[in-house]
UniProtKB/TrEMBL annotation:
Transmembrane segments: none annotated. Residues 231-240 have a biased composition (Acidic residues). Its main location: Golgi. This is PDZ GRASP-type domain-containing protein. Zn(2+) binds at H18, C115.
Length: 285
């Protein structure tokens, strides 16, 4: 199942159901619904405006459309457009997975939360630099092109939440969701923060957070999931000439700016008044 035509939304919906997960093999997995970037604002024929979305009413509508097509209205934060997504609610897909507790199977296979879309997409961590041999490099994080959106436990609601999460997972796998702007794809990455990889910080990665480091909008003519022509050309050139070009990051440009804090998770961090992670010195990491 695909999506119908999309229309530009006059403004960002004040309230919506934020899609956090799409369960594999579920009815929702057969659509183009994107976790983190998509928000359910209603259904086709809904008399309510997105500003007054009613989760309980939507739940009843989904149940009444079991095994029948339901056209959901979905707003996307990347292109700022609302589109129609046809889906067939069903319980049959989850029957083999029902446990002894006789839990009600999900009709859509969506995990959602009620939120304000305007602020829901602000808490992202931009990967600015990755140190050689670090856990971040081993996990495949890409400098300048990757953003961390959340983790397997859900979304993160404040800047320090991510750094606290890293500290709580020393020598333990931490599953995070990473968005690639270059390829317009979302992937799961397993990080293993540790203090014995041979360099500075638990991850060996510098992050940017705040207004200057939010995900920029994609070009209107960009096909989701496609590789931009300029990247294809550069990749061929690199392979032919065997070149390696490091990320051109000047960390001094961000130091001292309120909305552009950079961090490396430190083995023994202490918190400054501004909430930065420091290692007992005045240099912002």
């Amino acid at each position: 199942m695909g999506a119908g035509q999309s229309t530009a939304h006059a403004h960002i919906p004040s309230k919506a159901l934020h899609v956090l997960r799409v369960t594999p093999s579920s009815p929702a997995s057969e659509t183009d619904i994107e976790p983190f970037f998509d928000f359910v604002v209603g259904f086709e024929g809904d008399s309510l405006s997105p500003e007054h979305i009613d989760a309980s009413q939507l739940e009843k509508i989904v149940e009444s459309h079991e095994d029948r097509v339901l056209n959901l209205l979905v707003w996307n934060s990347k292109n700022q457009r609302t589109r129609v997504v046809p889906v067939v609610p069903s319980r049959s897909w989850s029957q083999p997975h029902l446990n002894a507790n006789n839990a009600q199977p999900s009709l859509l296979g969506l995990s959602m939360r009620m939120c304000e879309p305007e602020t829901a997409t602000e808490n992202v961590w931009h990967v600015l630099d990755v140190l050689e041999g670090s856990p971040a490099e081993s996990a495949g994080l890409v400098p300048m092109g990757d953003w961390i959106l959340g983790w397997s436990g859900g979304v993160l609601s404040a800047e320090n939440d991510f750094y606290d999460l890293v500290e709580a997972h020393v020598d333990k796998p931490l599953r995070v969701y990473v968005y690639s702007y270059d390829f317009d794809t979302l992937r799961e990455v397993v990080l293993i923060p540790n203090r014995h990889w041979g360099g500075e910080g638990l991850l060996g990665c510098i992050f940017g957070f705040g207004l200057l480091h939010r995900i920029p909008p994609q070009p209107e003519d960009r096909v989701p999931g496609s590789i931009p022509p300029e990247l294809q050309e550069e990749e061929e050139e690199f392979e032919e000439q065997q070149l390696f070009v490091p990320a051109d990051v000047q960390t001094d440009n961000w130091q001292g700016q309120e909305d552009a804090h950079q961090h490396v998770a430190q083995p023994t961090p202490t918190r400054t008044q501004g909430g930065s992670l420091m290692n007992g010195n005045s240099e912002l990491q």
